[in-house]
Design brief:
It comes from Pseudotabrizicola algicola. This is sn-glycerol-3-phosphate ABC transporter ATP-binding protein UgpC. This protein is about 25% helix and about 35% strand. By secondary structure, it is of the alpha+beta class. The chain has a 6-stranded mixed β-sheet with strand order 6-7-8-3-9-10, sandwiched between helices. The chain has a 6-stranded antiparallel β-sheet with strand order 13-12-11-14-20-21. Helix 2 runs parallel beside helix 4. The mean pLDDT is about 95. The structure holds adenosine-5'-triphosphate and magnesium ion.
Amino acid sequence: MTRIRLENLRKSFGDVDVVHGLDLEIEDGSFVALVGPSGCGKSTILRMIAGLEDITSGSIYFDDQRVNDAEPKARNVAMVFQNYALYPHITVRENIGLNLHISKFPKAEIDRLVNEAAAMLELQDLLDRRPAQLSGGQRQRVAMGRAMVRKPSVFLFDEPLSNLDAKLRVQMRAEIKHFHKSMQRTSIYVTHDQIEAMTLADKVVVLRKGRIEQAGDPISLYESPQNVFVAQFIGSPAMNIVPARVEQGENGQVVITLATGWTIPAGAGSRLAPGQSIQIGIRPEHLIPASGQGGFAASVNQTEITGSQTAIELAANGVRLWSVVPGIHTHAVGGLMTFSFMNHLAHVFDAEGGQRLGNLADIANLPDGRTATI
Ligand SMILES: Nc1ncnc2c1ncn2[C@@H]1O[C@H](COP(=O)(O)OP(=O)(O)OP(=O)(O)O)[C@@H](O)[C@H]1O
Ligand SMILES: [Mg+2]
């Protein structure tokens, strides 16, 4: 078992800085996902942990040992890549046992370990085939088998499922989860798919341009994103972010006016000051069609029906928004609908840095119920 600690980790390629002083603790036996847009440094970080890439400055610790200069072999890590990297001319059995063979394990021991891995990954019937005779998911399982026979103390995954079709991805995701439960090894999983990160990991690290935007358990990232970037990265479709102004009404009441044209009166003693610019974040699944009278108006641009849910693209005062509702709903394009949301499920971000100030109920001192509408 291994605890991994990154301390002020930096990486530059020539004069281009790609990782800017990363601090991160990965607990023993935990499953951590690194997510972020293409080019944010995920693979580079993983490769530095594996020992495949030099570290520009900072430290990597495995337990209390600084491994900056340790050879990849000495780190006892196994890495599973997107493109499987199987050898085409040898069988599944030989592919899985290859590293053991290279390390000169006795044949009987290789057979035992390969059979054990094959049983765990349900590959027993495929051991004599060659990679070309396997499906994508089966090849991915062989790559995992090859990684696990060495009983490494750390598993590193670099987008292992991105070459698979959607259905197989879901299936393999579940298998990786079982695999981690049974192996209980520290695992770091790189993906740009936030659903994979959310469903697999104990801790999700959201990266942007070589910096950590937020790290935490999946639910806290979903419920309390620290800024607009994380808010829009976690959750699908992405959170609606609407610019808003805090204004003083004629009767002295403080009112939030959204770019959608919607207005929300703040409660007495709210933390908002007239003249302040903010952004209001509402997740599509929290923007609920209003029944009966009242609510915020928006017109329907299009609907996307997937059976289990309907995503409705809306326009309000030229601002585009999404609402997601369970089940099948048909709405005429151009038709007007009204919506509401719960005060405590809407987020308030500052206008400049996009930092989260809190939820709407707290910031505007509103009761926890549905938004009042004017
Ligand atoms: N060997 C290299 N030489 C120069 N620049 C590199 C090298 N490897 C990576 N980079 C740059 O470093 C940055 C981070 O790359 P990295 O591969 O870590 O991104 P990533 O987050 O894994 O992206 P993706 O999701 O596309 O795989 C990118 O801008 C990339 O162009
Ligand atoms: Mg990558």
